[in-house]
Each structure stands twice: as C-alpha cells, then as structure tokens.
Amino acid sequence: MVETEPAAGFLFERDELQGVPLPPAAAGLIKLPSGCTAAQKTVAQTWNSQGALLQALSDTVGLEPAAAVAVLCVESGGKGFADDGRMVIRFENHVFWDKWGKVHADVFNAHFRFNP
After folding, report:
1. So what's the pLDDT on residue 4?
2. 68 in the Ramachandran plot: left (φ > 0), alpha (ψ -120 to 50) or beta?
3. Residue 86 burial (CB < 10 Å; 0-12/13-18/19+)?
C-alpha cells in the first residue's frame, strides 16, 4: 500500500469532506458584543458561515483554523464566492508583472497599474 500525504490530491475529491456542512453547529458560532471592529465582524461572519468546512479542511492539511479564516478574510473579505456563485480569486498584478509584465511592459501598462 502506498502512503500519501494527508492533503495529497484535490481536496474536493475527498469523500470525507464532501458532506461537511459550511457553518459550524450552533454551539460553535461566534457571538460578538456591540461595538466590535469591522475586522472582528468580518472574522465572525466568515466563521459563522463557513467554519465547519474551514475546520475540516484545516484538520486535513494540518493548519490552524484561525489561519484559514485569516487568509479567507484578507484575500476575499471573508467571502469565498461572489453573489453570482463565482469563486473569488485575487489577481496579484505585481506577481503578474514579475512573471510576464517586465518583458511586455507596454501591454502590461496599458491594462494594469501598481505601485512597486
């Protein structure tokens, strides 16, 4: 039998993850008092809407769930999907510059801007 890494392959293909609900059980919801910061609200809303899946994914890949929530909040404002159902994917134009734009500066500069 060949042993594989815990997170080998595509996670969406794993049977044990396919039935995991998005939100945590009621006991796991974050309740914030009034007067919280916008960041605290975003973290709580993210966990309350997707915490069970984030926990299961974190357990699978050996990551702290708080780190998964933090990345999701920073990279997509806590929403992994737009209102129309499309996945939110952050385009890093500075990385695109490093990988492609430097040798195609005129085309890059016609479409993108960033402060190096």
Report:
1. 58
2. alpha
3. exposed
**Residue found under tokens 């910061």:** 37
The answer to whether 30 and 44 are in contact (CB under 8 A) is yes
Where b means 16+ CB within 10 Å and e means fewer, 11-44 reads eeeeeeeeeeeeebeeeeeeeeeeeeeeeeebbb
Closest CA to 19 of 71, 70, 56, 48: 56
Enumerate the β-bridge partners of residue 81: 87
Rounded to the nearest 10 degrees, the angle between the axes of helix 65-76 and helix 38-61 is 130
Could you state, in order of their start, the residue ranges of all structural domains in the chain?
Answer: 8-26+36-80, 85-116
Q: Show the tokens assigned to 29.
A: 């919801």
In angstroms, what is the C-alpha Rg of the chain? 18
28-32, 70-74, 87-91, 101-105, range with the lowest pLDDT: 87-91
